[in-house]
Specification:
The protein is α+β, with helices and mostly antiparallel strands. It contains 1 helix and 6 strands; from the N terminus they run αββββββ. It has 2 domains: 35 residues; 79 residues, Sandwich (Immunoglobulin-like). A hairpin with a 5-residue loop joins strand 3 and strand 4. Keywords: Membrane, Transmembrane, Transmembrane helix.
Length: 132
């Protein structure tokens, strides 16, 4: 009786993996992964740290031709900018959109602004705030 060989037949399954090629692939993957993390960190920092104005809609009251919006704005001292608001009707159509400017040295502004509409608005949405 003969014993079975534990070696694979030569040439049947291709070359054994090259350790140097594996090492190069691991290094390249590590460098690309680090670059991806650095890019995500860069954009996250600029999104959070550079945003000098933030706001929220506290309440709103709609009438047939306008929506009064109670808007609370937090900003850096001396920063100026604007916030964009919109209103939609009950069927989802946009009935009003406007930019409201904020300037001055106050860091917190609590103001009721009037958004004129073409029909009765049922919502008051803050689309965003920007410096400038």
């Amino acid at each position: 009786m003969s014993t079975a060989s534990t070696r694979l037949p030569e040439g049947r399954y291709g070359r054994p993996s090259d350790e140097r090629a594996d090492r190069k692939l691991k290094i390249a993957g590590s460098v690309l992964g680090a670059a991806l993390l650095a890019g995500i960190g860069y954009f996250a920092y600029h999104y959070v740290a550079e945003n000098e104005i933030s706001a929220q809609v506290i309440a709103f009251k709609a009438s047939d031709d306008a929506v009064e919006v109670h808007l609370e704005v937090h900003k850096d001292s001396g920063a100026s900018g604007y916030c964009t608001l919109r209103s939609q009707s009950s069927d989802g159509a946009e009935v009003g959109r406007a930019d409201f400017r904020f300037t001055g040295s106050a860091t917190r502004i609590d103001r009721v602004v009037t958004l004129r509409t073409t029909a009765r608005g049922t919502t008051a949405q803050l689309l965003g705030c920007h410096t400038g």
